[in-house]
Amino acid sequence: MGRIDQDKREVGALFTSILVIAVCGLLYELLVGSISTYLLGNSIYQFSITIGLFMTAMGLGSYLSKRFRGDLLTQFMVVEIAIGLVGGTSAAALFAIFSTLKEVYKLVMVIIIVTVGTLIGLEIPLVARIAKRYGTLRDTLANVLSFDYLGALVASVAFPLVLLPNFGLLKTAFLTGLFNLAVVVLNLRVFWRTLRTRWPLALATASSAGLLLAGFFYSLQITSLFEHRLYQDEILYTQQTPYQRIVITKWKDDLRLFLDGNLQFSSTDEYRYHESLVHPALSLARSREDILILGGGDGLIAREMLKYPDVRNVTLVDIDREMTSLAARYPLLAELNQGSLQDHRVRIVNQDAYKYLEETSGLYQAIIIDLPDPRNENLAKLYSREFYGLAARHLAAGGMLATQAASPYFVRKAYWSVVHTLRDVGLYVKPYHVYVPSFGDWGFALASNVEPNVESVRISVPVRFLSSSVLKGMFSFDADIAEVPVAVNTLNESPLLWYYLEGWAKWHPR
What we know:
alpha/beta; Growth Hormone, Chain: A; Rossmann fold; 7-stranded mixed beta sheet; 11 strands
């Protein structure tokens, strides 16, 4: 092979390396941010801290790169092996620490971010200095940065659309580490004859690849081990969807559903929650022919609605197809929701609730909103003035809207912010709350385009919890959970998110 051909191979290997390491670098940021959000909540905070620390550490690495002298290619490959090992095992390390020594999780997270970030910061300057041998500094920098930015684009698209839904967090981390090692393999192959340290590098790469491959193929067992430490009860089912991690646990007769680590229901008392959310609204609605459910992918809201013989059409809008499919086919869930999602009266639409309200033209006699708590900015928008304004547009005259609104005891300001936001769109609102043992004192809001007469609520279908005494007391609030002055939640400003996070932080500091 001539010198020109060899130079082309070497340049190709270097720029391919830049593309791959750029992909891996951003993937590590996304992985740490996602894991910390899953374990600790507050995605804005977690991703801000993660990205800020990563960028700072990368700057440190770039600064330190000027101290590297001599065989830059060997040093670059050593850095790649180190990134592959530390970054590839980072997800497993974070889960392990959280499940065993939760109090030092943040310290370990910072150490991992700074270590990986510093190593990533070394990569590009080293490759740029190596590539400078093959062209002018101007061309080299232009090509290096172009491939670097292209790699970031690939990672940002691949992570949510391909890697996370198909592999989950642990497998994605191990796979990313293997990509770093693939860069070493590529450069070993191309520069084999000129490398004096080729055999030690090859041995280190093979050993590291063996460790990461073992982690990749046994990631399910590793995940199960960590999750058994995170959840008290036996884990029956786990699945990572494009939107959330689903975990189902069971202890004796207590079946529980968790989404991203947050309890959605316990079968021992879920009827208290779902009866309270559904029946006051449906008993006051002028008609019950067409009903809309936003959320409620577990089918338990639909179960309560189908108790009414005059209900003809129920449209259930839930963004996660995997969740609604699971609730329809998984035996224990289907038994609990009494097969509601397979009832001919129920139509399932797997779409974002906000988007659905923007696009649909239908009117509904009742709208029941059963969405996860506003614990991040994506969920908080579904409690905004704009969202409730869209919902109000699709409420028929005399129709009733009911939404879960978190706990007036644990997150008092957040609860009343939801109530104030509903009022701000011109609806008449009746706040109410009940005690659900699994959740504590839990709040709801009943709203309509006419004044709801809550004293006329009568339950005409079989229920386990609601009674005349419960109905009478649920609309009264003790002094320590009574209404407080709070801001309306909007898309532009989201005070609800901070009310919610601030409230829970008092009870569950992390």
